[in-house]
Amino acid sequence: MVPSKQPRLLTWLLVTLATVCVISLSACAGGKASRPTSMVTAPESTTAAVAAASAPAASSSADQAPTPAAAPPTATALPIVPTASALTVRTLAGKELAKAGWTTNGVVLSFRAPARVGEALVPQIEVVKAGQPFTGTPTAQGTPTVPQAGQVSAQITLKDLAPGQYAWQARFASNETKRVGAWAPFGNGDATFGIAGQPPTIQKATVEGTDQEANGMPLVGAKDQASVQWSAVAEPTEALAQIVYLADHQATAPATIPANAMTLDSTTSSLPLTDLQDGTWYIHLWAQDKAGQVSAPSTVAVAIMREPLQISDVIFRTWATNPQYQTIPIQFTISRAATVTLTIFPESSTTIVRRYNLGQQAAGKPVKTTWDGKDARGAIVPVGSYRFLVDAVDAVGNDAQGMYSGLTITDKVIKISLGTQSLTAYEGDKPFLTTLVTSGGVDLPTPTGQFEILEKSAPFVFHSPYPKGSKYWYADVTSNYAMLFYQQDADFIHDAPWRSKFGPGTNGPGIPGQPYTGSHGCVELPANAMPRLYPWTPLGTPVVITQ
After folding, report:
1. Rounded Cα distance, 544 and 437, in Å
2. How confident is the model at residue 54 (pLDDT cuts 50, 70, 90)?
3. Which range has the worst mean pLDDT, 129-138, 211-220, 307-316?
4. Alpha carbon 340 to chain centroid distance?
5. Do 226 and 207 form a contact (C-beta atoms < 8 A)?
6. Please, which contacts does 91-95 make with residues 24 or more away whose CB atoms are closer than 8 Å?
7. Which of 94, 340, 539, 541 could make a disulfide contact with 358, Cβ separation 3.0–4.6 Å?
8. CA-wise closest residue to 181 among 109, 123, 118
9. Distance CA 359, CA 340 (A)
10. 317 touches 393 (CB < 8 A)
11. Do 105 and 142 form a contact (C-beta atoms < 8 A)?
12. What is the Cβ-side half-sphere exposure of residue 446, based on CA atoms within 13 angstroms?
């Protein structure tokens, strides 16, 4: 049986059309017109196979078995772009920053990924302000980089970043296929780096809590709750790391922060001055940011006067004082410059007798004044015991007071006349005792002038101050009562048991000690007068001797 040619031709056309469609689809699957991996042609054998395949199922045994059709070509799989890893931040000088580290001006962002040899990858980063979400859009990218040793490494330098904190993420993109890898955030997305602006500054450093000044600087006393206060400014604010301070006695701050300086938290804006001892201090302050920048020093001067003001070395006359002849010297020292007043009171009363405003007195130097035994009106005060109060107030209000007893006012006086060789003891205007005396002779006269009783002894042994062989030498003699009134010549008022004559003519020339040759300069009294005069006379009683 002869097959028809018309069905064979139709079958060949269908096979050819199917092959062309497969080739076209393969080109489309590549995303661009690429050359197919294989071409399908139509030779005679193929035509025969196609014709045989198109024959009816019911055929004679003479028909040939059909030949299988060729499989269509497959598309080529594109490589996966690797994910960035090992993200690091370095300063422009190459120092690696820790997470949340700070620097100035800019940073170098580094990352890497495994990659096929020959495949150029483009590094991309997205940088956003800390706290803002990522958008997935690169903010900067580097140049295509060819992997070496199966790895591609990237560095992207960012300069002139505005001050602040930043988060960032990185990825690689294929330079050939334009496919991109997954974003990899720095520190799992919760880490940042910071850019500090201008160095920080310390502003408005002042001493608060005191109203006093000394030599142009604040003055702090024991009653003041004083502190140094300031304002620290950093760009941005969160870049401020700490406050550094040093308290010393130097008006000029050190050129660099010294090792012994103390640190305060960045939020601290005041420093209590409770630990400073008395003296002039200078508080030097620096602000330091997290990028290591340090402010210029700000220095505040302050004078501390907390130690209690002290009154010391108090000296005053405790002997009896007759205001008609004597005054009472008072002397003391204060530990710090202060305004001083001295007030006189009766021993058993708070009534003010006299007040002296001594004004500003220097520290460590004796403060001297004298009470003349008179009240504010100039009248001599009554006989009796008195006391005085010293009140010192320094510049910051520290107050020191001292009350001292032992002032004695008397109206007693002993008057001796060398011309009449007599002694009269007065209490006020009233004579208490009058007696004849023997004074020094021509060779060793009794001095004239105003004196006072310096020492009292009962009994008292006189030793000759002159060497044996001198005409003035004498053997030891004892008086029952002796009162020293002139220290220089050791002249006393004393009884003279060895003498039987007193009065005019008993102080004549000759060797002293004879009945009519006078004394060695002392004023000698009869034995019955001294027992009365001695207990009546207090130390300090004025002695007035006239010719």
Report:
1. 14
2. very low
3. 211-220
4. 32
5. yes
6. 92/157, 92/159
7. 340
8. 123
9. 5
10. no
11. no
12. 32
For 373-419, write each residue's pLDDT tens digit: 999 999 999 999 999 999 999 888 889 999 999 999 999 999 999 99
Per the listing, tokens 């000394």 go with 214
The three-state secondary structure class of 178 is coil
Backbone angles phi, psi at 48, to 5 degrees: -65, -45
Looking at residue 514, its pLDDT comes to 86
Q: Which residue has the tokens 């059909």?
A: 66
Residue 257 buriedness (CB in 10 A; 0-12 / 13-18 / 19+)? middle
Q: Which amino acid is at 204?
A: K
88 near 110, Cβ under 8 Å? yes
For the stretch 77-121, pLDDT in tens is 567 899 999 999 999 999 999 999 999 999 999 999 998 877 899
Helices 44-53, 5-29: inter-axial angle, 10-degree rounding: 110
Which DSSP category does 142 fall into? -
Q: Which two tokens stand for residue 460?
A: 């008292």
pLDDT in tens, 335-348: 989 999 999 999 99
Q: What angle do CA 392, 395, 398 make, to 5 degrees?
A: 55
DSSP SS3 for 280 = strand
Query: Is the pLDDT confidence value at 141 over 80?
Result: yes
Q: Where are the alpha helices (DSSP H) in 335-459?
A: none
d(CA 304, CA 248): 12
Rounded to whole angstroms, how far apart are CA atoms 302 and 206?
10
In this predicted structure, what is the pLDDT of residue 24?
34
CA distances from 1 to 60, 61, 67, 343, 445 (A): 9, 12, 22, 161, 195
How confident is the model at residue 55, as a pLDDT? 32
Both tokens of 506, joined, read 């008993």
Can you point out the beta strands (E) in 38-185? 85-91, 102-104, 107-114, 121-129, 140-141, 151-158, 164-174, 184-185
Question: Which pLDDT band holds residue 451 (cuts at 50, 70, 90)?
Answer: very high
- Length of the chain in residues, anyone? 547
Strand partners, 227: 208, 272
Q: What local confidence, expressed as pLDDT, does residue 223 receive?
A: 87
Token reading at 15: 């096979």
Q: Residues 452, 326: contact at Cβ < 8 Å?
A: yes
Q: Which amino acid is at 382?
A: P
- Cβ atoms within 10 Å, residue 129: 11
Instruction: Reply yes or no on whether the pLDDT at 508 is more than 70.
Output: yes
Give the pLDDT band (50/70/90) at residue 72. Answer: low
The overall longest dimension of the chain from CA atoms, in Å, is 207
What is the structure's pLDDT at 45? Answer: 31
Q: Kindly write down the DSSP assignment for every residue of 319-364, as one continuous string.
A: SEE-TTT--EEEEEEESS-EEEEEEEEETT-----EEEEEEEE-TT
Closest among 465, 508, 499 to 479, alpha carbons compared: 499
For residues 187-210, give the mean pLDDT. Answer: 94
Work out the angle at residue 451's Cα, subtended by the Cα atoms of residues 416 and 313, and round it to the nearest 5 degrees: 155
